[in-house]
Amino acid sequence: MVSVLRVHLPSEIPIVGCELTPYVLLKRLDGSASPEDVTEASPVDGCFLRYRWYRIQSDKKVQVCSIHPTEQATLQCLGCIKAKIPISKSYHCSPKCFSDAWQHHRVLHDRASSAVNENGTEEEELFGRFGSSGSGGLNSGQSGSISNVGQSPSMINGTTTITTPSYPAIVTERNGGETWFEVARTKTYTPTADDIGHVLKFECVPINVETRLPVGNSFPYFTSRAIPAPSPIPRCLIPVGDVMAHLDSESRISSGTFTLLSYNILSDVYATNDLYSYCPSWALSWPYRRQNLLREIVGYHADILCLQEVQSDHFEEFFAPELDKHGYQALYKKKTTEVYNGSPYAIDGCATFFRRDRFSHVKKYEVEFNKAAQSLTEAVIPTAQKKNALNRLLKDNIALIVVLEAKFSNHGADTPGKRQLLCVANTHINVHHDLKDVKLWQVHTLLKGLEKIAVSADIPMLVCGDFNSVPGSSPHALLAMGKVDPMHPELAVDPLGILRPASKLTHQLPLVSAYSSFVRTAPDQHRRKMDPTTNEPLFTNCTRDFIGTLDYIFYTADSLMVDSLLELLDEDSLRKDTALPSPEWSSDHIALLAGFRCVPRARR
């Protein structure tokens, strides 16, 4: 008899908007086990599997904490109700939770108030959405009002009322008057806001194809209570030049401005519980992270997206089709060999997306540093050292260079038919700390390739990605200064002699780091998130073991101007004692985004 041996979910905590896909192991008549989906159209041994999802509906709905979504809420901020902020963000699990979160929570109130004052209606808050101005000041005083969860929502001015839970946080019995509502008849299910605070039940039972009757008993699986998808405080787009940064999407089309995002999204193959033990397992699972990342990326509304650590299967099955729905065309280059687990689907790479209504694809260049390493070894490395040289240089990193044609023009009446081209380089440089010579060689190789493109065409350039190099390192110096000081300490480590003479470590591209504009023009609250000695962000990568800047957006300053920058995070923007990734931010890197304007030749 066909029977269900096992049902398992990647995470027992359902999250609103994140698809639940159970793993079902079926025992066949011959005793073998199969994880294949057995549908009515493709039965096995005369049977198929019938799936049902149910939501338990008890008399008392459990509200969950907006800061710690796995905890039951005991407090509600009545100021959120008055300000018409989404109710899920008004709940807290303890007085300390509310107090610790107050400064960031107050930003929600300030923004809601500003939206009403400016627009006459409350501003819709979406995950990852940002405005065109700063986030408002933060006061040290706490003036919110909170009430017992379950109390009628009346305002209690100037008081704080706290209660303990009046009902258990965990369902211990599933009977005694509880009602189960059927919510789906599919194997997969995506929880909705109606599920928040409720336990879900997945039921799987073999059905005889001929009789349409169950074969054996059903196999139920119960989840924990469903929680809302945690959302961070939205990051704002800060103008750094003039009022051009305030332009909406339609105005940008005619003005010649555009935005570019660079983001290392943390490949699933690297997102292990061993490396990120501080992140809850449900928040580290790919089904959750992919939806969280998509909401964040789409919310930035960037014209060009440069993503790193995109697994090839995730590109093909998720990011390319999902971003296509939002008007993006996709290009991809994967690393040149498989990662440690040997699966061809676990290869990650760089993905570049651009909005079809703003750009068209002209040309694509793929840079494989392994090929360059083999050519270099054949040309300059003595035969006896070739094997060691290849072992050191072959690290599988790549770069993806895309030439786009803008569907807007910034040229004057004297050149009405001139095409506006743009060259975008997206790369992920080698990560190993003890291979600083390899990092520098890879960056130098990329820049020399870009120089060849620059010679062949009068074209603005953007160079972005995860360079795995901190400000002041030799790769950063080469990018930002066009050369490396011969006395730079990192040049002392050059076992293959590939960096000598140091005078060759130059390039002629007028590259400037986009975020250096913050140091010159941004308000004080944003300059505090910058390192004044390097003119770079204090960090773009934040884990328990490392905090620093590894990601950059460089642009050619003779052909582009920075109009706006996505505000940076500071350590206060992250939860106390929490590194990345976290339930709110699904990568160990933060996204960088810059708005640019093409500069006509007459103004250079």
From TrEMBL:
<dbReference type="GO" id="GO:0003723">
    <property type="term" value="F:RNA binding"/>
</dbReference>
<dbReference type="GO" id="GO:0005634">
    <property type="term" value="C:nucleus"/>
</dbReference>
<keyword id="KW-0460">Magnesium</keyword>
<comment type="similarity">
    <text>Belongs to the CCR4/nocturin family.</text>
</comment>
<comment type="function">
    <text>Acts as a catalytic component of the CCR4-NOT core complex, which in the nucleus seems to be a general transcription factor, and in the cytoplasm the major mRNA deadenylase involved in mRNA turnover.</text>
</comment>
<dbReference type="InterPro" id="IPR036691">
    <property type="entry name" value="Endo/exonu/phosph_ase_sf"/>
</dbReference>
<keyword id="KW-0805">Transcription regulation</keyword>
<comment type="subunit">
    <text>Component of the CCR4-NOT complex, at least composed of CRR4 and CAF1 proteins.</text>
</comment>
<dbReference type="InterPro" id="IPR050410">
    <property type="entry name" value="CCR4/nocturin_mRNA_transcr"/>
</dbReference>
<feature type="region of interest" description="Disordered">
    <location>
        <begin position="133"/>
        <end position="152"/>
    </location>
</feature>
<keyword id="KW-0378">Hydrolase</keyword>
<feature type="domain" description="Endonuclease/exonuclease/phosphatase">
    <location>
        <begin position="261"/>
        <end position="589"/>
    </location>
</feature>
<keyword id="KW-0694">RNA-binding</keyword>
<dbReference type="GO" id="GO:0005737">
    <property type="term" value="C:cytoplasm"/>
</dbReference>
<dbReference type="GO" id="GO:0046872">
    <property type="term" value="F:metal ion binding"/>
</dbReference>
<protein>
    <recommendedName>
        <fullName>poly(A)-specific ribonuclease</fullName>
        <ecNumber>3.1.13.4</ecNumber>
    </recommendedName>
</protein>
<dbReference type="GO" id="GO:0004535">
    <property type="term" value="F:poly(A)-specific ribonuclease activity"/>
</dbReference>
<keyword id="KW-0540">Nuclease</keyword>
<dbReference type="Pfam" id="PF03372">
    <property type="entry name" value="Exo_endo_phos"/>
</dbReference>
<keyword id="KW-0539">Nucleus</keyword>
<keyword id="KW-0479">Metal-binding</keyword>
<keyword id="KW-0677">Repeat</keyword>
<keyword id="KW-0963">Cytoplasm</keyword>
<keyword id="KW-0804">Transcription</keyword>
<dbReference type="InterPro" id="IPR005135">
    <property type="entry name" value="Endo/exonuclease/phosphatase"/>
</dbReference>
